[in-house]
Amino acid sequence: MLLVGYGFILWQVSSLMHQRQQEELQRTSAVHQNAIRTLRLLNDNVTGIPCSQQFRMQMLRVAFLPDGLNEFLYAPDGRVLCSTSQIAFNPPISLGQTDVVIPGPNHISWRIQRNLEPIGLSGAIGSIAQLGNYAVAIPPYAKKAQDLPWLKSELVAVSADKNWHLNGKRGLYAGFKDPQPQTWNARLSTLSSVSCDEYNLHCVASKADLFGWANSAITILASTVVLTALFAWILANNILSWLRNYWSFEARFLRCLNAETIAALYQPIIDLKSDKITAIEVLARWKDVDDTLVSPAKFIDIVAKSGRTAEFTQLIADRAFDELMREPLSDDVLEINFNVFACDFDCQRILKIFSKFLEHSDRFCLAIELIEFHEIDFDKAQATIEALSAHGVRTYIDDFGTGYSSIERVARLAVDGVKLDRSFAMSPPDSIMGRMLVQVIEMVKLSDRSIIVEGVETQARLELLRSTGMVEFVQGYGISPPVNIAAMRKLLADDNPIWKRKARAA
Ligand SMILES: Nc1nc2c(ncn2[C@@H]2O[C@H](COP(=O)(O)O[C@H]3[C@@H](O)[C@H](n4cnc5c(=O)[nH]c(N)nc54)O[C@@H]3COP(=O)(O)O)[C@@H](O)[C@H]2O)c(=O)[nH]1
């Protein structure tokens, strides 16, 4: 983190430093180019007799004083004879030795940091650029860019063996061991650099205090960190909530519910007279993305809420049909019980969903278990029960004794049987529910419907139910939990099943 932070500061400071140096050097380059352009014009276009009135007028016209240039001189061999502001220098003024000659087609020569007073610019120190017979006086470069407290710079003019301070912090350039154009020098807390213009005549040396920059930019840095953290937090939250939504059980279930992910388990129902399996309840499971089998307690409400009840029942009916049809299960006609949502309790719909079972009435007898009805329309429900009965479909009231499964339903609907809710048989014999078991059986028996008791988990409970002489069928873990089709096949083929053996032993 520290390294990244230090790298960021280095990068920020170096770009700012470079930008400042380039701004400075662009100004010196512009002056240099203006000088070349104007001096060339003077050499080419001034034709009058040197230092005559006409000559000066021509000089003034050509040298239109572009930005940064003030005074043009006629100075053959470095001796000024006249200038744009002075008709004649008598005696001529010698400009002295040139300091730097810029190689190239223009061959411009420079005299740097000279006293300009003798040529009429009183009190001024500046440079003189000469091309051919003409020269131009260049006033000092004022520092233009605003000072930054953490950045010191010096503008210098350089020759092979000397440098002249032009502005900024004196001695900075000289402090560089080996000042080359575009050198960088990083110490722990400082960054130094030298940049020069394309003529290598002007250079800017700079030295930045890294911690000074960090200090001056602390507010910006802090706000950037806070804003970035805030942005990252919002983004992460959005991604997380999208992922949560996408991978929530409900979304995943509804997205992946199809023929491949639906699974069927089978729980036997035995006839207490023969101790044989005469019916099988089909119970749905759903295969999650990691292949775990999910219990219906987790998804039945989701199916109901999503309005995909008929589609769901169709999926489980098709799956069960395929598995049950693979090999004959029994010589007798087996009753196959399905749970159907109350909203799908409609004759035509049920006949359509279970049409395959109805076409094989020689092997299966279809039974529908009516789970929780909310507000039941008795006449409509009765009509449906009758219509289904006409097609050989049996109906049972499921979970009797809980929720909406009331005695009125048993009395008013011509169902084939009533399944007692498993909570009665599963309760300990001395509990209220346990003690009510026989009373509830007696009450239902008055309606003349056959009785199936669910939740039979022990042999003792099975024998108790048998001893009442009123219960026709039992279902529960004491006989078998819901199993897959292969295990179901084994149970059906077993002539001496566990519940018979236990009954004999008792
Ligand atoms: N509309 C549909 N509803 C369905 C379908 N498949 C199942 N369901 C309903 O989900 C509820 C939970 O079913 P499940 O977890 O399969 O539980 C069944 C049995 O395993 C359980 N049972 C049976 N005997 C015992 C027992 O001795 N002990 C014990 N702890 N549990 C036992 O009872 C459930 C069967 O209940 P029921 O349907 O009332 O006969 C359940 O309410 C199903 O209705 C489906 O395809 N469609």
UniProtKB/TrEMBL annotation:
Predominant localisation class: membrane
Annotated compartments: Cell membrane
Membrane topology designation: Multi-pass membrane protein
Reactions catalysed: 3',3'-c-di-GMP + H2O = 5'-phosphoguanylyl(3'->5')guanosine + H(+)
E.C. no: 3.1.4.52
A GO-annotated cellular component: plasma membrane
The protein, known as: cyclic-guanylate-specific phosphodiesterase
Protein's organism: Hyphomicrobium sulfonivorans
